[in-house]
Amino acid sequence: MKIALIGLDARGLMLFRLSLIQDMIEAGFEVTAIFPDTSEVQDDVDLAVSKLESLGAQARPLAMQRAGLNPLADLAYRNQIHKVLDKAGFDAVLAYG
Prior knowledge:
The protein is an alpha/beta fold. The protein contains four helices and four strands, in the order E-H-H-E-H-E-H-E.
């Protein structure tokens, strides 16, 4: 079963969802974590990607302007998420904030 986890940031993913991701992988699920790739926290993003890949999960950081006020940029981020979800054909999606 393929599961997508959509989070608000890489740091939160590592602090609050890492054990969940580990448990799902150990249970035989294919896990993909989707989160913003923001330049102001690039170290967190890089750490999250390497940690997730070492566990056997896929990491899909997506470009996003976290402090932007442009609704078109927000729509572009939403479209990126939809493309990832549609292309991979996930069986379940867990989004948290």
